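Side project, low priority. Logging it here so it doesn't get lost.
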Amino acid sequence: MKSKLELIEPLKPSKIVLFDGECGICSKSVEFIFSIDKSQSIYFAPLQSDRAKERLTQNGITHPNPNTFYYIDGDIVYSKSTGVLKVLRDTKSHYQWLYFLILIPSPIRHFVYDFIAKNRQKYIKKQECSLPSQAFLQRVL
């Protein structure tokens, strides 16, 4: 007979940032989000991971674009500039005020996002990774 604790399925994180694990600017962005996330409710997974592929496939995205930032909030996947703004809002930090940029029409926001994403390797080169903290590792899927 199984105990009640064994019957309870582990909670699935509902807020997950999916990022290109091979991109310097993406890794720096994740470090930044981790450092400002006052709610400590946002988790992280590289796009190359099985967990990321599984969650995206569940939402109908079978071929994720490595140039795209994805933010999963519950059952909704936000991408590009919308994902960035939603995650900043959810950090409960002083950066959440940037969410007002959601009022800019998405084609304009996404144009700027796409320009940065297309040229991201020029901005920050992939460097040797420092050892992540235990607190950070607990939020990586």
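Brief comment: The radius of gyration is 16 Å.
Revisit when time allows.
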